[in-house]
Amino acid sequence: MSPHIFLILFGLTIVRLCCSFPLEDEQPATQPKHHQNWRRQEMMDNNGLYWLEWWVTAKKIHFRITVNTQGFVGLGFSRKTGHMAGADMVLLWVDDRTGEPNALDCYGSFSHPHLAPMRDDTQNYQVISGSQNGTHTEVEISRQIETCDPYDMPINGDTIKVLWSFGDTDPIHGNLKGHGRNRGVKPLHLLSPLFEKSAAILQPTTGKRETHKWDISMQNVTIESSMDTLYWCKIVRAPVLNSKQHIVGYEALLTRFGKSHQPLVHHMTLFECSTKSYPGADSSSWDVWSKSTGTECNSNLLTPRDWDSCATPVAVWSIGSTGQFLPPHVGIPMGGQSGAKYYMLEVHYDNPNGLHAVDHSGFRIHYTHHLRPNDAGIMISGVSVSDTQLIPPGQKLYRNVGICGPSCSNVMFPSDGIKIISGTLHSHRAGRKMSLRHVRAGKELERIIEDENFDYNYQQVRQLANETVVLPGDYIITDCAYETTNRKRPTFGGYSTKQEMCLSFITYYPKIDLAGCYSMTPVREFVETFGVMQFYSLSMTDVENLFLYNGNLLDYIPNTIYAKTKKSRANMTAEDILYEESLLNQLLISDPVEFHDRTFLSHLNQLPWSEPLFTKRVEHAMINGKHMTFCRISNESITIPSEIIRYPNFTTFVKPPSTCPYHLFIDNAPLISSAPQLVDDLTLWVYLQVIVVCLLGAP
Ligand SMILES: *[C@@H]1O[C@H](CO)[C@@H](O)[C@H](O)[C@H]1NC(C)=O
Ligand SMILES: *[C@@H]1O[C@H](CO)[C@@H](O)[C@H](O)[C@H]1NC(C)=O
Ligand SMILES: *[C@@H]1O[C@H](CO)[C@@H](O)[C@H](O)[C@H]1NC(C)=O
Ligand SMILES: *[C@@H]1O[C@H](CO)[C@@H](O)[C@H](O)[C@H]1NC(C)=O
Ligand SMILES: *[C@@H]1O[C@H](CO)[C@@H](O)[C@H](O)[C@H]1NC(C)=O
Ligand SMILES: *[C@@H]1O[C@H](CO)[C@@H](O)[C@H](O)[C@H]1NC(C)=O
To answer: Pfam families recorded for this chain (predicted)?
Structure first.
């Protein structure tokens, strides 16, 4: 194909996809893209009765709500609880007699949650149009993204809990009974575009579906009721593809269990295995592995060492996500001469309720032979999963940071940089705020992703409205803040959802040989921060190796001079078992004498964590101190050694100040509870009250 034809085809690509992304200026493939004029649509309930469509223009956000009712429709926004109390709400209906559409701006009182919420003084929602027919009501409204009304929530990039509701009759008829089913709450990123599957799987030039599906799933993985956490890994053989293809997107295939119909999968990743890097390596063993149902990941005894080469992610899914579909100018390569022959599926099962289950979850990969202009890749950044990530107990917000710095970006990034398309921020139950920060030449640039309202249950991929260019020499920093007010002991980095992670999964182009770029507090620094100089039987170098290579203590000290686990597991909680079995609980302190014969873990448990000055000092020391960086390369002919660096000095990015004379949204009131955000009966009661009061105040 001549380059000209290719360009024309690419031009058509953009035109044909205009349903989700209207015409963009055609740009050379190397220019980062701006995705203006996107539109999104979500089904809010499970039955297709309530659809929300929205888009952004200049300073306004527009909503089109289409609901299977001739009665009233409610839409609300809440930052924290997902409850009506404190929420910004709008009540919509089309008058049965006049056919006039109506919108009434309301809010739920936070300071008096038992009093009925109120009609706003200022009406900030404008009705653009509205109508109803025999079955549906459809209303289009708009409002300023920031109305400057303290009773309206400013819409921003954070996770927003969107409340929805509807009833059978118009409010003016007085009968406001809704059905229990007809309300709910859904977290959404209202300001992020999202590339739709429907557009991604169509061949743009023909409008036909010319993608193929490749399903990769676990086979009969048994999760015992005693397993709180299980990481299962399975090798799969790639489909035989003689020419290179592009992955255009992927979605999760989930096995669901129990009454709540929830998957046990918390997060899963498909990795490419670089088997080709072992010339003469016995490919027959990969074949044997690919026929097995898999094994526990990271198990020194069970997992073959070769599986370590399965390190470059090609698909990542976390709880609450719908997968990812890529914009028309990029695709993740697979197949052909240089394509990976084997992949590894890693699934993290989270089983807090102790179910016994047999699981078949995995990915559906959509790929095409219509190659797109750029090869995209996925890399992992953040804090390396390790016991040296620590969050003290009793903290309202405590930060950890993971750094990807020049030691990696200078060597690996092309001179005009990589362009980030999307990212997923990943932490566990204590995660409250997360951001992906970007530092160049001593100055922080705009946050690549920022969520001040991180929802552990909604780890949806975030497509960037503007692709971000990261140049050689830049730093990217994953910044995580955790809340542990109800915890009594420190939380450490680890694989269980009761432990923590601080990671970003970044989709970018052009693809480079990079699987991950992350950091951790160096072991020696970590130990010394807490005043410990020496352990029994092990040099500090041994201890470092233990941490870094996921080592087995018995390889180092084949005798019994380490703390043994004594308690019976039967009567222990999952947290207790994690603690008992922690590496930190097996290191016995020999120096200094005052901590003598304590395990390092019991020493950490005894520190004065309730002293804010102490925890602030630790937090500051860990962030601003030393970081050991890792540049995980997926091409074995390149190695970049780990490096110990200091946190970079930079001036923090400051958002332009709000143009509002004052800034007070009522939902910023203190968080009452971080319990699961399901709308309960009290909320329904409150909701009915809202309507009544709104009406009393109505003209
Ligand atoms: C009623 O309106 C809905 C939503 O606008 C539309 O999908 C449906 O086809 C309409 N029904 C009829 C009978 O026109
Ligand atoms: C999974 O288990 C079912 C029921 O025991 C069995 O019929 C099926 O063959 C198993 N599948 C695989 C791939 O092992
Ligand atoms: C994206 O870039 C355009 C053009 O530079 C700018 O006008 C717009 O505000 C940016 N959007 C976001 C969300 O940063
Ligand atoms: C251990 O089990 C006993 C009896 O089942 C129970 O009363 C006790 O509270 C348990 N102890 C702990 C620490 O869970
Ligand atoms: C690995 O890197 C080397 C050196 O940059 C390069 O020549 C080679 O093509 C790379 N291999 C693959 C499979 O990309
Ligand atoms: C940051 O600045 C301090 C004081 O100016 C200096 O000691 C430190 O080395 C700097 N750190 C880096 C990473 O440049």
So the answer is: Cu2_monoox_C (PF03712), Cu2_monooxygen (PF01082), DOMON (PF03351)
107 is catalytic: no
> How does pLDDT run across 536-560, given as a tens digit for each residue?
888 899 888 888 876 555 454 444 4
Tell me which of 188, 203, 234 is where a domain ends.
188
Structurally, the chain folds into a number of domains equal to 3
Whether 62 and 157 share a structural domain? yes
Asked if 512 and 387 sit in the same domain, the reply is yes
Residue 34 Cβ contacting ligand 3 at under 6 Å = yes
> Does residue 544 share a domain with residue 511?
no
Contact 394, 485 (CB under 8 A): yes
* Closest ligand 1 atom number to CA of residue 135: 1
- Whether 309 is in a domain gets the answer no
Centroid of ligand 1 to alpha carbon of 198 (angstroms): 22
Nearest CA to ligand 3 atom 4: 34
Residues 557 and 592 occupy one common structural domain: yes
Q: Are residues 65 and 167 in the same domain?
A: yes
Rounded-to-integer distance, Cα 598 and Cα 587, Å: 8
252-305 tens-digit pLDDT: 999 999 888 889 999 999 999 987 645 555 678 888 999 999 998 876 667 788
The boundaries of the domain holding residue 443 are 376-517+625-660
The residue whose CA is least distant from atom 2 of ligand 2 is 220
Are residues 592 and 598 in contact, defined by beta-carbon separation less than 8 angstroms? no
Domain check: are 438 and 491 in the same one? yes
129 vs 580: CA distance, rounded Å:
62
36 lines ligand 3 (CB under 6 A): no
